[in-house]
Write a structure and sequence with these properties.
This protein is α+β, with helices and mostly antiparallel strands and 299 residues long. The protein has helices at residues 17-82, 86-115, 123-138, 155-176, 216-230, and strands spanning 5-8, 141-146, 180-187, 193-199, 234-239, 245-251, 281-282, 290-293, 295-296. The protein is built from five helices and nine strands. The chain has a five-stranded mixed sheet, covered by helices on one side. It has a two-stranded antiparallel ribbon with strand order 1-8.
């Protein structure tokens, strides 16, 4: 039931066929309006829930890892202090300081990611702007090759892709000590989209025993892997041939997920029943001085 509206007539004057047709059309329009309002509310609620899940995943995949390491190190630090083992205490203190610094960097990265709006001109323009800014700010020569100049993605997908590229370039500028970097956008052999970020720097860092692996690179990896999963793609982070690091993102191109429909038999073609629009059903008017017309939602 979407709603009820009452119609009143004078004694002996009921609605004619033309009036009933108009009332039926009005009821259907009211039903459509109310149904669209309900759908819009549900869509907003779903988007809000999705955004909260994204934020929770970002915090879990980056910040929570560093805090868990600090929690494990604190009892060891306490034991070393109580046992007057200065060397062990200093080691654990350094581990905690490093993990807290990483957690702080992770938090700043998360806040930057959620505060920074996506370029309204689209992903390609955003990548071009990021490439130009990277060369000016880092001093690293960046070669940007885009074989898909007409690439268009949905707003959410573009934000995830740009987040991964920005994180990778940020790690090149901060940790790689590179002289050259490359950003390549192309179509993969299987029809998916491939984005490669590479540099000729120092390569992947070595993890300290028992510590969080890779420092800033590990933080980037956690966040970027999560973004790649949301795209339905894969992310590879490994050494580049000839030295340095190579980050490769591959994800489905827009419009590749097409649901296959079962073919209908040529001998007996199926007829699809027309869908009924949500609206108001009107009961037949009664010959009362005051007529109440019920408006029931049709499926």
């Amino acid at each position: 039931m979407l709603g009820v509206y009452n119609l009143f007539y004078e004694q002996g004057h009921g609605p004619g066929p033309e009036v009933l047709a108009v009332l039926k059309a009005v009821g259907e329009l009211l039903g459509l309006a109310l149904n669209n309002a309900r759908l819009e509310t549900e869509t907003l609620q779903a988007r809000l829930a999705q955004e909260r899940q994204r934020m929770a995943a970002e915090v879990h995949d980056s910040l929570a890892q560093s805090l868990a390491f600090v929690k494990m190190r604190m009892p060891l630090l306490e034991d070393a202090l109580l046992g007057h083992e200065e060397a062990r205490a200093l080691k654990y203190c350094g581990d905690v300081r490093s993990a807290v610094s990483q957690a702080h960097a992770s938090l700043r990265g998360i806040l930057t990611h959620f505060r920074s709006p996506m370029d309204p001109q689209g992903l390609v323009h955003a990548l071009e702007a990021a490439a130009g800014h990277f060369g000016e700010s880092s001093g690293v020569e960046l070669e940007f090759v885009n074989e898909l100049p007409a690439l268009k993605l949905g707003p959410e997908a573009e934000a995830q892709v740009f987040h991964i590229v920005r994180e990778a370039l940020s790690n090149v500028a901060r940790h790689a000590r590179a002289r050259h970097a490359w950003l390549h956008v192309a179509a993969a052999p299987d029809g998916r989209i491939e984005i490669v970020i590479a540099d000729d720097g120092a390569g992947l860092p070595t993890a300290a025993p028992g510590g969080p692996a890779g420092g800033g690179s590990a933080t980037m990896a956690w966040r970027s892997f999560s973004s790649a999963q949301r795209l339905g793609g894969t992310l590879e982070i490994g050494p580049r041939e000839g030295g340095g690091t190579r980050v490769r993102l591959v994800f489905p191109a827009p419009g590749t997920r097409v649901a296959a429909a079962a073919p209908a038999s040529a001998a007996s073609p199926r007829r699809q029943r027309p869908q009924r629009r949500p609206g108001f059903m009107m009961a037949a008017p009664r010959s009362f001085s005051s007529t109440t017309t019920r408006c029931a939602a049709t499926a």
